[in-house]
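**User:** Everyone, produce a chain:

**Assistant:**
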Amino acid sequence: MRGDYQQLVDEISAVLGAPATLEDRDFGLIAFGAHGGDADDDTDGFGGLTMDPVRTRSILNRRSTPAVRAWFEAFGIARATGPVRIPPDPAAGVLMGRICLPVRHRGIVHGYVWLLDDGHLSLLETGGPGVAPDPRLAQAMETAARIGAQLAAQAQAGVEVGEFLRDLLTGPPSGRGAAESGLRGALGATADGPLAVVAVLPWGMGGASGDAPGLGTGPAGVAAMCVTELPDGIGGLAALVRLRAATDAGAEPARTAAERLLRSPRAGAAGQGAGRSAGESAGIGRGSARVAARQAGVPGAAGQAGVTGAFGQAGVTGAAGQAGAAGQAGAAGQAGAAGIGRPRRGLGELRGAWREAVAAARAARADARLGPVAEWSSIGPYRTLTALSPGGAPDPAAAPLLRPAQAQLARTAEVFLDCAGQAGRAAAELGIHRQTLYYRLSRVEKLTGLDLDEGEDRLLLHMALKAARL
């Protein structure tokens, strides 16, 4: 399929004599072609034409940055039905102008073809009310329409496979047999091979229920994707990934896919309708675009709140409905995180793999030291804690310690317990004198009524502090 896209992109490059790049509607790279210049003039390794930094990053990273996306969308490319000329902007790294060809099918934008203009396209008429576009651009738009039809068909096929996956992972027992049969038919031999389930939380739930909008054709190795709503009301993405072997060591393709999925604009978009559906307009005003670019240009800003919240560097984000240390961190929002369940062979145990993947993603969101991608086998006590009902009130003994005013004591207690009660290690990690540690722990005992020399009291407090993160 990608070869088909490459051929069509090359057709456009040949017609216009310009380098062309095909990206999906969320600026994920699908195919690119180079044109012009001799091999001796190849200054960047991409075919004989010096490219501006934006195109180079798009090819190397397989996706444009949020700031670049906002800049281009400000010209109304998602609403356009014909070519759109975009001037250079050296301040944004756009050293060359472009002509954007919207890739549409039945009125829905599925992607964009970008033509680099080093000046030789400047006289081409892009068209407008009562003005026909240059015949070469008209021919290129016909090719873009063929690309749109293929992307639409591929997206629809992905939706159908995604519906089978969602019903198998989260549907009622009565429909699981049919879902497994349908998924097996769609995947062929892959259905019996080594597989892993990846969960990305949160995930914007706009668009078709079975679709995974914002991913285009999806990362390599992903056999199926679906979006589902979790019991706590947030959206989550499930991705079924082909592995080399059904072992933890063979799960590297799942980690690679998870990292790619986290770059999607929908990753970290909590709540229903956080992202755009396929048919919605992506155009925004220029002022709004620049605001969006500034916001998007601060990667991890939301996640940092969870790292430096009430528990300091430990990164606690708090229990649901609790006004306290973790609540402060959670108020600023959380970045997306991904979890990976244990590898399985075949489709029979994917529901368990999904539960593990969700647990690992929740743990990664709660504890910055685990994320942004965590495997279920490596999340330690969260394997038990995530299996318990989330969102309940904290234990009465631990509740006083979870108030905002006690953030320093809470973190001290957690580090001390993480260090298995070894005062020297805990004091070194906290960067304090051992006597200061003992003083703080004595205050913890007075606040909670717990005896930190007793194993069961230590266990209760340690679980309460970890549970507060979730």
In short: Residues 135-170 form the longest helix (36 residues).
